[in-house]
Design brief:
The complex is a heterodimer of chains A (280) and B (252). With 280 residues, chain A is mainly α. Chain A has helices at residues 2-9, 14-39, 43-65, 74-95, 100-121, 129-133, 141-170, 172-177, 182-221, 227-252, 256-279. Chain B has helices spanning 45-53, 70-73, 94-99, 113-125, 141-154, 171-184, 224-231, and strands at 6-16, 19-29, 34-38, 60-65, 77-80, 159-163, 189-193, 206-211, 213-218. The chains are: A mainly alpha (280), B alpha/beta (252).
Chain lengths: 280, 252
Amino acid sequence: MTELLAALTDPDLPFLRYGLLVGLLASISFGIIGTFVVVRRISYLAGAISHCILAGIGCGLYLQTVAGISWFTPMHGAIIVALLSAVILAQVSRHAGQREDSIIGALWAGGMSLGYLFIAKTPGYFDPMSYLFGNILLISRQDIYFVAGLDVVILAVVCIFYNKLLALCFDEEYSQLRGVHTQWLHLLLLCLTALTIVLLIRIVGIIMVIALLTLPAAIAGSFAVSIRQMMLLATAVCALCITLGLGASFYLNLPSGSVIILIATGMYLLSLGLSRQSSS
Amino acid sequence: MKQAAIAIRDLSFAYSSDMPVLTNVCLDVWPLDSACIVGPNGGGKTTLVKLMLGLLTPNSGSIRVYGQAPVETRTRIGYVPQYARYDACFPISALEVVCMARLGSNFSGKYSKKDKQLALEALAAVQLADLAKRPFAALSGGQRQRVLIARALASGGDILILDEPTASLDRASEQQLLTLLTELNQQMIVLMVTHEVGFSSTFFKRIICVNNKVYVHPTSELTGELIQEMYGGDLRMIRHDHRCAPEGHEHD
């Protein structure tokens, strides 16, 4: 324990401190957005967005290295592509009807392939593993401000539109009949999901993003009686997973993303068992 | 001359071009009308309702509600959707469900004291006032159905449309619901979709038969032949109103 505390306060090892701080701050966004993703059952949309982001990251790297646009970082690319795919997916779920899942599948894999091509064409060695599986070494001081800013935006939007978002998730058709602009609200929700995913990728990577977005909320869902409670509980569970995961990965010298996800999965299975026991 | 509340002229609708659901429908619904919409499954009952709500647009013909396009007037309609499509483990309380009826009242969707008051009154009207704080998921099928009815009541308006509200109600609750609807009919139009003809249909002034085409009959005309005509072909009618033929037909 003292070893971990020493590492956290060591001025020469800022990455662990940043990682933990970003993880804890991000838990707020994950808990809130994850709850909506779970109750609205759009985890496959979240999955598609996260995989598309590789295209943005690849594009950012390529433009930076080959085209020499130094201000355009992979992070910029990720944000743009995430928002773009949110807009496309909102249109797809509105108009595609039966073929929705095929189109989502195409976006999912297409985005990823495009990203990998960009990375392959970027000279110099670059390991896509850090983006696929997460790497807290990539987290910088700037990310802390970014996460804190996103928390504020998400908290504000959810506080203002709580009732409408709740109604959208519970009964979209009825909310529309009561004069709620459900299409815009759905788009807003997807965009916030996209931004949250961009953050998550730093910590757990593209492939495992859906797990950390949905598992804490799913755990919370089996105990909560209201959405508000579910968000609070999901935030707490997420913070716990990240803290335990980072701690364990530090001691055992394991990749932090995978450890965090395994802890979340274990807790989810445990909660399934518990809620089954209490219901029987 | 009274103006029809809902006026449908030569309306046709199809989800895909080779499968017409409704053909050449003409229908007038008058102020303080009460009607039950009956017909076989897949006959187009729910489609007709969704057209009235502006959730679907007709392929041809017109539909006007109070002289306007349905999209403009949808907030004047209280609507009870089919109950089966709800996520049974959604963490939400009965009161929160009913409050949804008041959503349109302001930009952010915050509920005022009056909104909550109206929601509680609506819950009281369906005898669920004491379960307001109970999670929706913890209620029985019949109770959830009544919560959805309360939600439609809380929205106010002058038309109430219910889509198969009796499907998961026991006989006593169904009786209660029909009494409530009769009462509400003093102030508003009541339209109820049901796929069983019989007991409940006798509470309404008119019967709207929907099976691709739409015919309207006064309730007094409801006979075996008519039902056979509506549903097409062979059909056995089971009456549950305990006022049936002397051959003896008892449930209790």
